[in-house]
């Protein structure tokens, strides 16, 4: 079993594409500019530029997060080992109970999701916060020696990167800088999701059936999503002009987007942008597997996803959700509902010539894009 750095094969970055594509123009958040013992000091120009970007685009880059290139590459190496160094038998034994409980913790095998009758070619190994207290139950033996290292990385994402972003967003909503952090910092109610993902190239026939879409267009379910940038051009975002554009690789940067939970509590002011994964437009990158390292940050389990009454920005939207007589769900209830339903070809209303599908989940309309 691996026990030290040299035991886990080093992941080598795939070649970066030198071709130009229709890339999204995204704002960059310099996280080093957020300071103070509780990250309460945020320059006004940061609040303005990032607030505008996340209300308009829902996606930004983040740099100067405090992690070195080596620390990030190490996580990609562990991600690679989580798939290549663990037997198929153990992946099955430690399978996530996605449909049973709405929890991604464990391995998601290829083929769990379907799009146009084609099963996906994506593997996940996902960890909710509770996984680190139940190590023997969650981690296959090959990964147990790495748990402390993975947990430390998770903790940094939550306590520093996520917290800084929440300070910015609290000020965007004209709330005290610690307001949103107080909705996410109860240790006993944490259920953030950390994920290693591996996208295997589908066959040309399967790619043709889905028009090159490998992960259906969707909004994330959580509060804030952190993606560690990697070289394969494949992620697309649906920009405000309703055009799909690629996200450019920025070495060592984070790609950050907001999810449903943040959208709901902001009264719709902050945008949960639709995004998807497609076949790389650069033919030289098509044969490569695409490795991903993600951190899906959440509010506390019991946080109600209702518009924040204390915010004048939220009040100005005049928007409400779940207004059919039901109480707004908690962050945990919404997450479970979406996890169970996603990619299962449920009861959907096809619109826009088949390019979009509507689905009712928990009393709220969810739109999927193919």
UniProtKB/TrEMBL annotation:
Signal peptide interval: none
SUPFAM superfamilies reported in the protein's UniProt record: Clavaminate synthase-like
Stored InterPro entries: DIOX_N, IPNS-like_FE2OG_OXY, IPNS-like_sf, Iron_ascorbate_oxido_reductase, Oxoglu/Fe-dep_dioxygenase_dom
Record's keyword annotation contains Iron: yes
A single GO molecular function term of this UniProt record: oxidoreductase activity
Domain Fe2OG dioxygenase: 190-299
Pfam families documented for this protein: 2OG-FeII_Oxy (PF03171), DIOX_N (PF14226)
UniProt KW keywords: Iron, Metal-binding, Oxidoreductase
Family: Belongs to the iron/ascorbate-dependent oxidoreductase family.
Protein name (Swiss-Prot/TrEMBL): Fe2OG dioxygenase domain-containing protein
Organism the protein comes from: Pycnoporus cinnabarinus
């Amino acid at each position: 079993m691996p026990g030290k750095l040299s035991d886990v094969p080093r992941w080598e970055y795939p070649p970066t594409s030198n071709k130009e594509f229709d890339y999204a123009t995204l704002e960059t958040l310099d996280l080093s500019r957020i300071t103070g013992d509780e990250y309460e000091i945020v320059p006004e120009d940061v609040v303005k530029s990032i607030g505008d970007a996340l209300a308009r685009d829902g996606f930004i880059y983040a740099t100067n997060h405090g992690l070195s290139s080596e620390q990030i590459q190490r996580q990609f190496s562990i991600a690679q080992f989580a798939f290549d160094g663990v037997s198929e038998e153990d992946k099955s034994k430690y399978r996530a109970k996605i449909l049973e409980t709405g929890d991604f913790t464990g391995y998601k095998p290829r083929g769990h999701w379907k799009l146009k009758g084609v099963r996906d070619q994506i593997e996940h190994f996902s960890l909710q916060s509770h996984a680190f207290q139940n190590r023997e139950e969650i981690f296959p033996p090959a990964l147990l020696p790495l748990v402390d290292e993975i947990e430390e990385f998770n903790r940094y994402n939550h306590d520093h990167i996520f917290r800084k972003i929440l300070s910015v967003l609290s000020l965007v909503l004209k709330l005290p800088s610690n307001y949103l952090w107080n909705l996410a910092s109860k240790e006993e109610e944490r259920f953030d999701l950390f994920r290693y993902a591996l996208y295997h190239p589908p066959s040309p026939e399967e790619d043709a059936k889905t028009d090159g879409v490998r992960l259906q267009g969707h909004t994330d379910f959580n509060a804030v999503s952190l993606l560690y940038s990697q070289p394969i051009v494949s992620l697309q975002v649906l920009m405000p002009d309703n055009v799909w554009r690629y996200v450019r690789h920025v070495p060592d940067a984070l790609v950050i987007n907001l999810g449903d939970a943040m959208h709901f509590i902001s009264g719709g002011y902050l945008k949960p942008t639709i995004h998807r994964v497609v076949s790389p437009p650069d033919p030289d990158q098509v044969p490569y597997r695409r490795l991903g390292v993600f951190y899906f940050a959440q509010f506390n389990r019991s946080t109600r996803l209702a518009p924040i009454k204390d915010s004048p920005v939220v009040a100005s939207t005049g928007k409400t959700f779940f207004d059919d007589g039901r109480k707004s769900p908690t962050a945990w209830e919404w997450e479970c509902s979406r996890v169970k339903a996603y990619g299962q070809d449920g009861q959907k209303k096809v619109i826009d010539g088949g390019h979009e599908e509507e689905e009712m989940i928990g009393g709220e309309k969810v739109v999927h894009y193919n």
